[in-house]
Amino acid sequence: MPYVVGLTGGIGSGKSAVADLFAQRGITVVDTDAIAHALTAPGGAAMPALRAEFGDTVANADGALDRAAMRAMVFADPAARKRLEAILHPLIRAESERQLLQRPAESAYAILMVPLLVESGDYRKRVNRIAVVDCAENTQIERVMSRNGLARSEIERILAAQATRAERLAAADDVIDNDGALAALPPQIERLHGRYLELSHYVS
Ligand SMILES: CC(C)(COP(=O)(O)OP(=O)(O)OC[C@H]1O[C@@H](n2cnc3c(N)ncnc32)[C@H](O)[C@@H]1O)[C@@H](O)C(=O)NCCC(=O)NCCS
Ligand SMILES: Nc1ncnc2c1ncn2[C@@H]1O[C@H](COP(=O)(O)OP(=O)(O)OP(=O)(O)O)[C@@H](O)[C@H]1O
Question: Which residues of the sequence carry a binding annotation for ATP (predicted)?
């Protein structure tokens, strides 16, 4: 079993920026957001079940999930979000497990990147350690507004569906501070990488 570090953080906190720095150090990154996107791409394995549950209008002409429409629906309606998650989460979990087990031997440990890790008992049990990318809520909102062009109110609804900053910090073994410049990340990741190499050495 590989040593697995769970990487989490709220929307726009900087998980992808942090994951890239681990990947540059030869570490396998299993990205559950990327898996969710693949499952809902044209011909994606989740699309038949999503059409059956929500109707054919959830798909675009090319067969991919209409992400903007689904986002508007599920972050306004917790029951719809549960129906979406009931279809996607088991598929995401199975695929992430498959990718973890397939990791190349050169990767001494693996990063499992899960936005909803703190919220999920299953993922918490699966990981050996939890690293949280942390920044102020307002920083998250500003970054997502400039990246996706989403309205502040829409981002606030997504934040409301996630654990709070305090809940995430309470679950963290390691905290990566991403309130500053991007240049502040590599020294933090270098230090954690050294620590994870040591820790994985003792369990493998
Ligand atoms: C609602 C969907 C279609 C919106 O798509 P969109 O392209 O706008 O966002 P994307 O998938 O890139 O996710 C961006 C971020 O939104 C947040 N988010 C996504 N799903 C959820 C959720 N169910 N609950 C809370 N926050 C969520 C996360 O911070 C994530 O990093 C999409 O997020 C989705 O299918 N969500 C359900 C699957 C899921 O829970 N994914 C989280 C990874 S396990
Ligand atoms: N320290 C930083 N300074 C400035 N911009 C940053 C910083 N960290 C991340 N960003 C930018 O903020 C946005 C969100 O970062 P990133 O995509 O890494 O977050 P994420 O946690 O993976 O987001 P999501 O949950 O939405 O997938 C990106 O456009 C990224 O380039």
Answer: 12-17
